[in-house]
Amino acid sequence: MPVSVVTGGAGFLGSHLCDLLLAKGHSVICLDNLITGNTANIEHLAGREGFKFIKHDVTEYIYLQGPVDFIFHFASPASPIDYLELPIQTLKVGALGTHKVLGLARAKKARFLLASTSEVYGDPLIHPQNESYWGNVNPVGPRGVYDEAKRFAEAMTMAYRRAHGVDTKIVRIFNTYGPRMRLKDGRVVPAFVGEALRGEPLTVFGDGSQTRSFCYVADLLDGIYRLATSEESGPINIGNPAEMTIRQFAETIRRLTGASAPIVYRDLPVDDPKVRQPDITKARELLGWAPKVDLETGLKITIDYFKKQVGHV
Ligand code: UDP
Fold it and tell me: What span, in angstroms and rounded, lies between the C-alpha atoms of 131 and 133?
């Protein structure tokens, strides 16, 4: 039975990854300091054979007994509101945390997969974004704490690969949605769905002409698992190339929730990327991966989850 460690395993993506790995026959050690993760996301796994949760801040030394085959480094605040509220923790987990987790991978001779992000491309000057683009990031802006932490994490990962021969992989994750996102995490999917379900106006930032491309969580994890079990090292984009404006997205949420409240406009946050769409040629060709879940199907599942969260049934 392969042993996998998932850092950030009580978060949105990390908890789904724990589920997937257990389903694939791995035993899973889930590490999380719970600053943005939540044990509610893994409570269905409590007591399950092959699953262990350890509350731990991975910026501190990590001691684990026994062999480890795979390490998935997913620990980080990941929504703009979270990393604006937790700027130093965000930088620390990307830098010190990645260093510690790579050290663990080296000591255990484990394969290491870094959850990186489309934010490494910043406010991109090429469109769609492919992996050879170096990005357009403002290091001193409010989003810089996340973008630069992840860019440093990528550099550190490559350094461990080159200097210590650690078997590393880097995935660049584009906007992903699904059950277990926090209703109040500030990202656009829970924000709009929450507003729609509460009968409040949907708050579009800027004029809503900025674009994003939304990937359903199960598709994303399929791509990540394929990368982890391939001989590719990346970086490799995983995301859904179906791009739309945020205004169109707000209309979609209104239609799917039957909301009648209007759309209101607020100031665009500083350095909010104007466009974003993954070029997934590499994932298609090297991993045989493409997203399968269309936006409407994925959103319906997600809206049902949020209905329970806001007290609707
Ligand atoms: N956004 C919005 N209203 C909200 C939350 C976000 O219009 O209540 C916009 C935000 O300005 C951005 C897009 O939706 O252009 C996606 O934002 P999110 O926070 O989900 O993630 P990002 O892609 O910016 O990292």
Answer: 5
Residues with CB under 6 A from ligand 1: 79-80, 175, 186-188, 191, 203-205, 210, 212, 246, 268-269, 272
Residue 35 has pLDDT above 50, yes or no: yes
Q: Where are the domains of the chain?
A: 3-176+216-238, 179-212+242-276+293-307
Alpha-carbon span 50 to 52, nearest angstrom? 7
291 CB-side CA count, 13 A: 27
Residue 313, pLDDT score? 45
Q: pLDDT tens across 87-142, in order?
A: 999 999 999 999 999 999 999 999 999 999 999 999 999 999 999 999 999 999 99
pLDDT by residue (tens digit) across 155-172? 999 999 999 999 999 999
pLDDT mean across residues, the chain:
97
How many residues make up the chain in this entry? 313
For the CA of 276, the nearest atom of ligand 1: 23
Indicate if the pLDDT at residue 234 is higher than 70: yes
Q: How much distance in Å is there from the Cα of 188 to the middle of ligand 1?
A: 5
Asked if 177 is an active-site residue, the reply is no
- What pTM was estimated for this model as a whole? 0.97
With contact defined as beta carbons under 8 Å apart, do 133 and 282 qualify?
no
Among residues 83, 121, 146, 160, the one annotated as catalytic is 146
DSSP for 99-150? HHHHHHHHHHT-EEEEEEEGGGGBS-SSSSB-TT---B--TTSTTHHHHHHH
CATH 2.40.30.10 applies to domain 3-176+216-238: no
Identify the CATH class of 179-212+242-276+293-307.
Answer: alpha beta
Ligand 1 pocket, mutate which of 119, 185, 188, 302 (most atoms under 8 A from CB): 188
User: Would you state the structure tokens that stand for residue 255, as one six-digit string?
Assistant: 């239609």
